[in-house]
Amino acid sequence: MQPLFLRGPSITLRAIILIALSIGIMIADHRWHHLEKVRGVIESYVIYPLRYTVNLPVSFFDWMDKSLSSHQALLEENQQYQKAQLRYRVQLQKLSVLEKENERLRYMLSASPKVGEPVLVAELLSVDQDPYRQQVVLNKGRKDKVYIGQPIIDAWGVMGQIIYLADSSSTAMLISDPSHAIPVQVNRSGLRSTAFGTGNASELELRYIPHNADIQIGDLIVASGLGQRFPPNYPVARIVKIERPVGEAFATVLAEPLAHLDKSREVLLVWHNPPVDDAGSKKNAKQPEQGASK
Amino acid sequence: MITTRCAQVVIPTMAVALMLSILPLPEWAQMFRPDWVALVLIYWVMAMPERVGVTVAWVFGLLLDVAQGSILGQHALGLVVISYIVLMQYSRIRVFSLLQQAIVVFFLLLIKQLLVLWVNGIIGLSPSIGSYFIPSLVGAALWPWLFLSLRNIRRKFTLTKHY
After folding, report:
1. % of chain B residues with pLDDT over 90
2. Which of A15-24, A242-251, B110-119, B126-135 shows the lowest mean pLDDT across its residues?
3. Who among A2, A130, A198 is closest to B70 (CB)?
4. Which CATH class is domain B4-155?
5. Residues of chain B neighbouring A18 (CB-CB closer than 8 A)
6. Rounded alpha-carbon distances, angstroms, from residue A17 to A22, A35, A227
7. Which of A267, A283, B141, B144 could form a disulfide with B98 if both were Cys (CB 3.0 to 4.6 A apart)?
8. Is the model's pLDDT at A93 over the cut of 90?
9. Is A239 within 8 Å of A257 (Cβ atoms)?
10. Angstrom distance (rounded) from CA B38 to CA B108
11. Is A128's CB within 8 Å of B81's CB?
12. How many CB pairs under 8 A join A and B?
């Protein structure tokens, strides 16, 4: 039997309690990041199956595409890859010589040698996130020793960093998110700055650059490694616009991210300064200072 | 409280709504994506106010927050507020025609959207999307269709005899 009127006061009371609770949770989550565990548990047990289901058609079509493509096409593709591989190997030979030389020079300057970081390939789940944020979901999580703050890169440049962890998935904030900033350096002149996200996947903003700074359109911006979160010298963006408004203290500098933030399907997780408290599970847990030598 | 029998229908439909809200869409279509979770929730609160209420709204709000990567509690707050409004007015909304209901749904979705944007503004995510009311419009336009299909589902499972 359905009552004609619901018990009003109890509903109002319940609504007020839940609203207060929501506000409390928002503050706890935003200010103190207390609720990452809760989020991880919900993500692992409730949301991940949903994400997996949503992603299924996409992976199915990928698989169909691969299995139905002709023998000839596959052969050609294979040949192309082999040629590319050969070309890269030749370049790599030179690179290894250069690397050794660099190491020797650094040794002579008694600076720390640059160590290659271990990486892991992850795939993006094709799911959409909050349209007001720039985030992606990866198919690797705590099981794969991913950690919060871990940088991700794609074949073209730095993409972002991990912010939420679940058992077998993780969420990464892209460098174009309005609440993201990455310490960078102009490759040509060595000028240091910080690149802030704008919420637009094709635009970063370099702030606090004085009018007379040595910076030009087309300059390559690389991660400076300051702040210890991103590995140094990975390309980040290219300068596309410089304005020097009269009467303002700093120039307006816009850059376009090199990583294909909205197109890449495969990304690399880089182990760079992983947290030490996770004892033993990581190699090179603590690396010597890098980039901060000036 | 929600009983097992009605949970068997409410939970799958809400799960589908959650999946629709993370379904990948091309860039241009994302601004038209209606708030599926809010739409389905409005229907269930209206159809079974004695079973689906603010608590259910809050739980699914949290799930939506995790699914979308927004801060926890943001969508939960919006869904609690609109489900409370529906709970207070359900007997009135029920007798409306589908068109009138769609108008009410538009305003409910808009309230939720504004609450979400308000929180975004407080934490410093300035909304770059000016046309914030479009998802609510799309949602209202979908309402008659959604209402009829969910009513069919509910009748098939004979959850409530009346209405």
Report:
1. 60
2. B126-135
3. A130
4. mainly alpha
5. 54-55, 57-58, 76, 80
6. 9, 19, 41
7. B144
8. no
9. no
10. 9
11. no
12. 135
User: Starting at the edge strand that comes first in sequence, how are the strands of the sheet with A158-165 ordered?
Assistant: A119-123, A266-270, A151-153, A158-165, A170-174, A135-138
The token duo for A293 is: 């030598």
A279 CA to chain B: closest CA distance, Å? 29
Q: Cα–Cα distance between A250 and A207 in angstroms, integer?
A: 7
Assigned token pair, A151? 């940088």
Q: Are A42 and B31 in contact (CB < 8 Å)?
A: no
Residue A168 has pLDDT above 80, yes or no: yes
Domain segments of chain B as ranges: 4-155
On the 0-12 / 13-18 / 19+ scale of CB atoms within 10 A, B68 is buried
Instruction: Provide the residue type at A102 as one letter.
Output: N
Chain B touched by A16 (CB under 8 Å) = no
Q: Which residue of B has its CA nearest to A2?
A: B50
> Which residues neighbour A155 within 8 Å (Cβ) at sequence distance 6 or greater?
A264
DSSP category for residue A276: T
d(CA B107, CA B96): 15
How many percent of chain B have pLDDT more than 70?
91
CB B34 within 8 A of CB B43: no
Amino acid at A163: I
- What is the C-alpha separation between A120 and A146, in angstroms, rounded? 9
Please say whether the beta carbons of A251 and A211 come within 8 A.
yes
Length of chain B: 163
User: Over the Cα atoms of chain A, what is R_g?
Assistant: 24
